[in-house]
Structure formats: C-alpha cells, structure tokens
Model the fold of this input.
Amino acid sequence: MIQLVEGLYKFELTITDNCGLSAKDTVQIFVNIPEVKQPPTCGDTNRPHINAQLIPVGTLSQARDGIGVASAGNKLLFAGGFIPPGTPSSRVDVYDLTTQTWSTAELREARSGITAIGAGDRIFFCVRRDWRRNLRYKNG
Done:
C-alpha cells in the first residue's frame, strides 16, 4: 500500500491483450486526511456508539429469572432462579466456550437470589435469602 499525502491524484490503467489491442481508463482520487480526535473522557456525553453484534449461542434449558451468572476458565454458568410465575429452580446450565456445547447440573436445593463469582477455575455461589421467604414476600 502506498502512503499518500492529502491531495488530488490521477491514476491511469492500461490493459493490453496478446494481440496488441489495448484499452485504458483514468480515474481521479482526492485523498483527504481525517482530523484525529482525542478520545472521549468519562463525563463526555457525546461518546461514540460502539458497533457490536450479539451472537446467539442457544437457549437455557429452562426459562427463569433471578439467576446467578458467573464464568470461570472456559465455562459460563447460569444457576437457580425462579421459573415463572415463581417456582424456584435448582437447574444449572453450563456453556462450554471451547466446544460451544451446553450441559446441565443441579443444585442440592432450589435457589433464587444467587450471587456468583468466578475465581481462577472455580465458581462460588452465595444465596442472599431463603427462597421461601422471598416467595411469601412476592405473593403479598
């Protein structure tokens, strides 16, 4: 690639076949060097939008809300939660980032309100409240 400075350039392309016939075309290109902007600060309300794409990897084995989510190594875990309209779940869905496959496991007890954190190759779960009290609270 040629590093061009700002300005107007004229390029001509000539093609000749084996019989000596030729054709040519000319194009003009204006090279404009864009202004380099300083990166935005945290308080900048005009921050650029990030162009990102969500890549679906599948669906959990059981629809539920209030789940604990954590990652460790090449695994993502989605644990416990409520199966609508409010039944607690003991299900743990495990997604393997390397093989791009799903598997399931079960908690010893159905739980919701789980806080989870990954540290090294381990995931630690902490239950904030007894789901039975939470159900009574949710129902009135």
User: Anything to note?
Assistant: DSSP finds one helix and nine strands in the chain. The beta strands are 7-16, 22-31, 68-72, 75-79, 82-83, 87-96, 101-111, 114-119, 122-127. Residues 68-138 form one domain. Confidence is low (pLDDT under 50) at residues 131-140.
